[in-house]
Model the fold of this input.
Amino acid sequence: MITADRAIAAYLGLAIGDALGATVEFMTPHEIAVQYGIHDTLHGGGWLRLKPGHVTDDTTMSLALGNAILAQGSVDALAAAQAFDAWMRAKPVDIGNTVRRNLLQFRKTGNPEAPYSDHDAGNGAAMRMLPVALATFGQTEQTVRTACRAQAHVTHHSALSDAACECLVFMVQDALRGADKNYLLHQHAHQLAARHPAFKFRAIKPASNPSGYVADTLQAVFQSFFDTNDFRDCLIDVVNRGGDADTTGAIAGMLAGAVYGPEAIPDAWLKALDADIRSSCEAQALALLKMAGESPK
Done:
């Protein structure tokens, strides 16, 4: 599987997981089962009353970040903060409380780094890490970590958030190189849990109704990703857990797309995804890889 195909699949996976999960965001698994049986269709709705195939802040913040990286030629904290501020001024369909609070602080101070806070260990930085993974592909480990934190600290300056963001970026990059799930499990997911026990996802009950806390998010994502065998099953499993389902769906879709590739994405989901979002994801994936020095093949 060539790198460019996997990169495109990761970006489309992020958007599809976002759109699929948005319908059942903040619902419990029981509520989902009563209303939908098994939720497996991009038909919009949900508390945001989205049109079918439309996405939330997970995808639109990722695209805003990617555009800033391409314009700047690197992952730059100030450029990211300015891009996120412009995104917020455009009145997005949804915005997290931590994102809003720290972007308002940026407007006042001009400082693109939010104050450190263990309480800011939400998933709002982790959900938008894909452009960083693509833009820094092939670069040194320290360069990748620095880039992760540059964009993450604009809104989420927290040790657990940093750990999650860096783990996800390295997982995506290894998947782009052809690593299988077993490698990702042992080299990244288990090592994250060993360093930060809050991320343990084995030997605990299946994560239902996961919150926006980044450890809850990754527990749900990792359980679904590692315990299923294809793109479709992974996304259906994770979004039907409810809770912050647009974000768990987006992150799971990103990982599953990078591992399984474009052929694994159901045609019905691709066709249902908003056409402008689809084309933006595809174009940005290729542009970011090109910027990183990886010629699309």
